[in-house]
Amino acid sequence: MIHERQVDLEKSTNVRFPRLTRRAMQLAGAMAPDFTAKYFAKKFLTPWIAATPLREEAWVQGALPHTVRSGDYRLSVSSLGLGGPQVLLVHGWSGRGSQLGAFIEPLLDAGFEVNWFDLPAHGQSTGEQSGLVDAVEAVQAVTQWLGGAHTVIAHSMGAAATTLAAARGAEIGRMVYLCPPDDVGSFLAAVGRKIGLPEAVIDQARGHIERRFGVSFEDLIPTQVAAGLGQPMLAVHDRDDREVQLGEVEQLVAAWPKASFVVTEGLGHRRILRDPEVLGRVLDFVTRKGTARAA
Considering the entire predicted model, what is its pTM? Predict the structure, then answer.
């Protein structure tokens, strides 16, 4: 299913295209479609980097740094509370591992080891461009380095990457998903249409990306593999999220054999990561007995 996304190209947490860039791409799309398609594909695979807020720096203070190899990328990984059952935090597109830092202290207090990392081409990890396939491989690499994860807590595209990594055999006991999209590929079409690009140019850009990674967007839809996953999963989504539609989260939950679902209001796509009530619900799920493999 293609989801109609409302994307603000100057404020979106996923992709940003300033007005002058959009206008130039509109003109180029009509005059030089091949060039425009390649440029659009490149920009779509290039995360924008935002400054790290002081609250996130405080959340991750004292963490032990590590480097984990994933393909051609060197991932920046951090850990706190070594020795307990391992929880892995996975951020979304154009995010950073510290974005989920509000979970660290409650998890440490509950006796868990907490690990987080920057996805390829994000934060302190290497690379300038990446895509969902790279994110999937990164989740696989870090969970393998950990020797398996008791729980993965993932936001946005990080949730899609975690689902696909689990389907490929990543050892994960349970998942918590915050605003999980189901069809990441639909962002490309939504952004292209918002810019005003011809459909042919959007299709060309899609082809460039699929050839680069050797896989179609249709093969990267979490609901297609969810039925085969036996791990318990908690999805938390906000009605006011402007990036991910409620309907696609409902689809994922319906396809997942052991899923529970919490819907919030007024938190949007990012404030949900530090809301006290959400933190409490997640901690309850993570610490509940009988819902994950032995650590």
Answer: 0.91
